[in-house]
TrEMBL record:
Organism: Streptomyces labedae
InterPro entries: DUF2993 (IPR021373)
The name this protein goes by in its record: DUF2993 domain-containing protein
Pfam families from the UniProt entry: LmeA
């Protein structure tokens, strides 16, 4: 009985040591992986990397992780031609089936899903930034975007008639969708009346409707769907064969 108790104590102690070693190893690996992702994507700050699953060491021996979660606070994505960029806040990706090299110099995930947020002021940058004539003596421009409720964006239009700005912006509810996996499209559900006169639809939509291209997302992930929220548009992203590093 005494020998059995000693063996149990030894087993418990060794098990505790293994857990400690395993957790130290995963912490080190997360730091290395974060540095690799930062260098590969040219990030301004180091991302959060969380390697899921236990034990970690057996996953290392197998050369793959079941699940890795990556979080980037602010990511500067491409916004079309001319070197324009758009800031994406709180980009979070859940990657599964991550195959990696021994030094984490390369890592590729079978699939990835995630979320991100684009603030309204960032999205507004690609709307009509200058007053545009929609009818003789009448100009309009988008001055603000906000949450319109029920997944809609409220677009505020400032209208000037014969050189005089109207006291209150005209607002219109717009739908927001993803086009071609890399573009956010904002389109008015109904046309507003500007300056108290009827204006051709094509002229009004030159102001109300616009698109924002978003490319160069980490690892080649793409936009899947988008919905208006309180502080901006919430975006769902996904991808296959997503490259984290290398």
């Amino acid at each position: 009985m005494r020998a059995l108790r000693i063996l149990l104590v030894i087993a418990v102690v060794l098990g505790g040591i293994f857990v400690i070693v395993d957790r130290v190893a995963v912490h080190f690996a997360e730091g290395e992986a974060a540095d690799r992702v930062r260098a590969s994507e040219g990030l301004a700050s180091t991302p959060d990397v969380d390697i899921k699953g236990f034990p970690f060491l057996t996953q290392v021996l197998g050369g793959s992780f079941d699940e890795v979660r990556v979080g980037i606070s602010d990511y500067e994505a491409g916004a079309g031609e001319g070197g324009k960029t758009i800031r994406i806040a709180d980009l979070r990706a859940d990657l599964r089936g991550v195959e990696f090299s021994g030094d984490f110099g390369s890592a590729v995930a079978d699939s990835a899903t995630g979320t991100a947020t684009i603030a309204y002021d960032e999205l507004l940058r690609n709307a009509k930034a200058e007053p545009t004539q929609v009818a003789p003596g009448i100009t309009a421009e988008v001055v603000a975007l906000s949450d319109g409720g029920n997944g809609k964006i409220k677009v505020a239009l400032e209208t000037t008639v014969l050189g005089t700005k109207l006291p209150e912006p005209v607002t219109v509810l717009s739908s927001v969708t993803v086009v071609d996996g890399n573009t956010v499209r904002v389109r008015a559900d109904a046309l507003p009346v500007l300056g108290g006169v009827e204006i051709a639809e094509s002229r009004v939509r030159r102001i109300t409707d616009f698109e924002q291209k978003i490319d160069g997302l980490p690892g080649g992930i793409s936009l899947e769907k988008v919905q208006a929220a309180e502080d901006g548009v919430d975006v769902t992203v996904s991808g296959k064969d997503v490259r984290l590093a290398g």
